[in-house]
Amino acid sequence: MSDGKPKLSVIRALSLNPDLRRTPELPSLRSRQGTKLMQWLDQSGLALAFPKRTSSRAAGACLPDEWHNALEGRRKRNAIRLQDMLDEFQRLNEAFRSQRVQAVTLKGFSLVPDFCEDPSLRHQTDFDFLVAPGDVDAAAEVLGSCGYSTPQLSYSGESCFTTPLHHVPSRTDDLYAIQHHRQVDLHVSPTESSPWLQVDFPDHAEHGITPMNISGVRFHGLSLETRFLVQVLHAFRHSSRSWIRLSWLMEIGHCMDLHHDDDALWIRLLEQTGNGPLMRRIFAFILTLTHRLFESRIPPRIENWAMEGMTPTLRAWLDHFSEDWAIADWPGSLSNLFLTSEFIVESRLRKEYLLSRLIPKRERLTIETRNTDDLERPFTWQIQRWKYVAHRAGIHLGDLIRLPLEQLRWQRALDSARAGLNQSQS
Q1: What is the distance between the alpha carbons of residues 18 and 129, in angstroms, rounded to a whole number?
Q2: Over the stretch 231-268, which tens digit does the pLDDT of each residue have?
Q3: φ, ψ for residue 106 (rounded to 5)?
Q4: Which of 39, 95, 177, 268 has its CA 20 to 30 A from that of 332?
């Protein structure tokens, strides 16, 4: 198998109509290909859902023993990690309530069960809370009392709070181990800002607050339609950085399948999205990508609306590039640069964006955010950091070298799409 074939075997096994015929043929974990596949499963967020899907199906599609054992070990470690994070999540929510600060959970645990039926099948790294702009100071005080601090408090954007970092982070860290340090992102808007892309979103008071409960932990989340909108925009924002975690698309697909016939839900969603061409195009991109990978059913109400944003250029990219781009190893592929003009209209912003992707700033290459005095062994941290930067830089250089060939392939795809369009119109 090429590197892409085993990845597609995993995706096909996780699709709405699972195809498990190739799962017994996964490469040995003792091989380089098998090691890379497992790394991709971890980074894509699919490692926890994959064994559950294969074990729940017919015998003949079972995983090789070494794969079953390795993935089962991840599931067990993640179960311990999950309980630890739930305990911290409860502590934070109780602290907010004690100070009468309304902190609404974004993403994370609020995605259960509508986007993910079982929280043990998700790998979560941090906590995201939404507060009103006037409550930022009060929320920061609450987080400070819980041992979190931030280098910069923002009243208009996102503030990143962390606990002291005493562990030297490394690329080889176990993703499923109990966290060495915590992170809370404090938001004043459900969507994350971007210097190149501004998407209108309803005011904080209009989102609709929903009481939620997970494993006995009480908290507040957004209404389902708003959570869906947030997830689509979150996935799109990360896609603009060259990579997307496929578990996010799988979860969006799960929500569409679960609520496919709830026409009232999708009507409420469209009332929030508005009729702007940019929002339609974002939905067309994310939902079509989700459908192609996981065969998720797009509800007709939003499909008809979103497909009005589909352009010949976007269609050509989805037809010829989307699969390879989606299954690329982290930190991703530059091939989605060919869609820049579809989403960023202003030429100046488009140039700034392209430059940021081709020559990323140093902070985009760092292994971890930290406060000035976080580490007891800064020299060791610097060694790990530069190993990480060298790794990222090497991958990025390879992408730059391949980009001219990708450009030629893109031009052929565009020419073919235009020829087909002209033929259909003649």
Answers
A1: 35
A2: 999 999 999 987 899 999 999 999 999 999 999 999 99
A3: -105, 140
A4: 177
pLDDT tens digits for range 220-231:
999 999 999 999
Domains and CATH numbers, the chain: 1-63 (no CATH), 85-222 (3.30.460)
Q: List, as one string, the DSSP characters of 227-255.
A: HHHHHHHHHHHHHTTT---HHHHHHHHHH
Helix axes 32-44, 4-13, angle to 10 degrees: 40
Rounded CA-CA distance 365/359 in Å is 11
Q: Which residue has the tokens 């209009």?
A: 206
Which residue pairs, CB below 8 angstroms and at least 24 apart, start in 259-264?
259/114, 259/224, 259/299, 260/297, 260/299, 261/299, 262/299, 263/299, 263/301
Would the CA dihedral through 288, 240, 235, 167 be positive or negative?
A: positive
Q: What is the pLDDT of residue 370?
A: 46
Question: Contact, 158 vs 237, CB < 8 A?
Answer: no
What does the alpha-carbon distance between residue 360 and residue 352 come to, in Å, rounded to a whole number? 11
**pTM confidence score:** 0.91
